[in-house]
Amino acid sequence: MHGGSEQLRRPASEKTPGKGDGAYTLGPMQAGPVCCDPQPLIQVDNLSLRYGAKTALDNVTLDIYRGCITALIGPSGCGKTSFLSSINRLTDLIPGCRTTGRIRVDGCDIHESACDVQALRQRIGMVFQKPTPFPVSISRNIELPLHERGIKRRADTAAIIEQVLRDVGLWDEVRDRLHASALSLSGGQQQRLCIARALALNPQILLMDEPCSALDPIASGIVEDLIGQLRGRYTIVIVTHNLAQARRIANYAAFFWVGGHAGRLVEFGHCRQIFESPAHELTAAYVNGVRG
Amino acid sequence: MAETVPVKSAGIHRDRFAQLTIYIAAFMVCAAFVWILSDIVRGGVAHLSWSFLVDAPRDAGRAGGIGPILVSTVLVLLVALTAALPLGWMTAALLAEYVSADSTFGSAVRYSLQVLAGVPSIVFGLFGNAFFSIYLGMGFSILSGGLTLACMLLPILVSTGEAGLRAVPDAYRLSAAALGMSRKTTLFHLLLPAAAPSLAAGLLLGIGRAVAETAALLFTSGYVDRMPGSLLDSGRTLAIHIFDLSMNVSGGDASAHASALVLITALLLINIAAMRLTAGWQRRKIVPE
After folding, report:
1. CATH architecture entry for B53-285
2. What is the predicted ipTM?
């Protein structure tokens, strides 16, 4: 077994802005068996999550592996999105939401007081179900988070903007109208802009909450191909209702189900194993379309 | 089908009657406005001239102009807005962004603002006189009048500001937070620009209320019609000038009408300017679709 996930991590120099001559591409795909030597990057232990009196997630323990795409599948209301937003502590913003249990990202407990939540979120990009571009220009959408990060020199931001827009395949479509409103883009373009915006901060992890479900099939295909290309460079956790999509792009899959009024993790494993030889009968019924 | 005819025609009559009533109501609203406006224009336009705008009043306002009064009005308005805008919009940001909708503190602030909004302006005048003029020793001054007005403007500015911020979709807040943006950046670079039309509406309502205010200023900024030398001088605003001319000065009607015409025209211009400015500001921060 070759590889090892260290090799899958993108060298830091690759993203250095200002390297000129338009060479801002993702580079060749990492070939070979991915994640053959899985190293957990996100470790979730006994995570439970409540909205007021209602339990949304019950006692979830799960490791997310570095450099891999992990798909979260399961019916609506089984806590997939809640799970996703507890990783970057976006649940803090929801009134009445309480989490218990432990989540470690790269070994650090995200609920410890030493953890800077703003820095955590800059390391963890997130893409939402509906494209959420800010109602400002295309370039400003990417500039705003960069400014917050302390990257303010015009040359630096311009280089990063070009790089990430190239990474998501949007550069050629918008290079002449970077100052036009982001809302003038089509749905698929908006979603790719949101992915670019998340990539601009050079995150380690990308959380994606059904990023294709609000898009038409063609735009959805483009975004899906893009997610596939990001494999190996980012650790991706993606919620999807599209089982075929999960099967196509994910290395690992986690199947959630509502049991006893709370979402819980039923089964986690290699994507192929989940779809072809599930250990749990609920998983088998769901992936075969019998239930769910 | 013959039996349906009477029902139908009765329905049509009722419909027409309702339509007519609605039209008459709308017409009466317009008529009231046109009546007031034409009365003011008819009585005041002959008296209006450049020298009326810049000269000092003579003979208790029967002759001369309204130069010092315009200056006092602008100064009172500036003092009021300088004090009320930051306070009002910051409170709006607090209520909309920093405390949860049902928190005790938020409700207490909102309730006190509602009470404040219902207080008659003469009571504000008495309060301003007791607190700013006497207790803080500002006397009858533009500063004292402006600060009293600021207290009256707060409820308007806070409620329109809060409503505007609440109308901004939560998706912006969530995605900004997910990008590691601080609440401050999100507020100043996304939420306030997005709420700009609502803030401008509040500002206009506030300006309208401030320049129309009479009772609260009688006891605070006073009605000395000299050109004010500083903010600590007493100054007479347009509204007080109109009140004084029509109530206390016989033969002052023409001046009162002309002053009212100036007031209404100024309000109209402020409205247009504020709308233009907001549109421009929003375009700079937020590119429209």
Report:
1. Orthogonal Bundle (1.10)
2. 0.81
